[in-house]
Amino acid sequence: MSNHLEAKQGDIADTVLMPGDPLRAKYIAETYLDNPVCYNKVRNAFGYTGTYKGHRISVQGTGMGIPSISIYAHELVTEYGAKKLFRVGTSGGMSPDVHVRDVVLAQAATTDSSIIHNIFGGGIYYAPISDFGLLDNAYHAAKELNIPVKVGNVLAEDRFYNDEMDRKKLVDYGVIATEMESAALFLIAAKYHVKAMSVLTISNHLITGESTTPEEREKSFDDMIKVALEAAIR
Ligand SMILES: O=P(O)(O)O[C@H]1O[C@H](CO)[C@@H](O)[C@H]1O
Ligand SMILES: O=c1cc[nH]c(=O)[nH]1
Question: Residue with the nearest Cα to atom 5 of ligand 2?
Fold first, then answer.
């Protein structure tokens, strides 16, 4: 048991998929895992462990934003020994090169989060990046599954509603999509010498206005989930 998870030691696998939405965790466990067992219901942040093609995998809802995922990532790694973390999340398209339902592999996560900058101070802007091995696995898993992916720099921003953000400049500098957690996940993984990456689905587009319903967001992003699961067992 940790501060926010009621799992017992051994209940959580080394490899954990981490959607922001706890109901997406339930959907992934019930749809893709054999014999899923729910190990956490604290705060409705559902967590399950089961097997995928014979490999033990957990899926843990992390909530929204850097403070929330930081709690779950920290406890999964330091209290339960998780070693490979895959965020599976929705994201807003920013570049004209991405469209609704595209799968994005986050190579790096640019951020405005003071949580990240405050760790280093002294003018340092740390560059949180995906683990190259996991990224490589996800890229090749997607190729084998015939699922097209875009690989690039994503924005992990502190505010969902943020009309002060200069998105055009970020797109000019290669940022393709926005979400709210990856920078913290990559930073925590670096701190504890474990591996992390993010597989995202474009759920809406901030420039074109394309969007999806909450039900679609909860259930229909199977390509992202398949890429993460296949990457996890490679
Ligand atoms: O779909 P999830 O994984 O929650 O991710 C995205 O959706 C939430 C905002 O709607 C933020 O958590 C953002 O990162
Ligand atoms: O953080 C997010 C997630 C999905 N869509 C957005 O526009 N922002």
Answer: 92
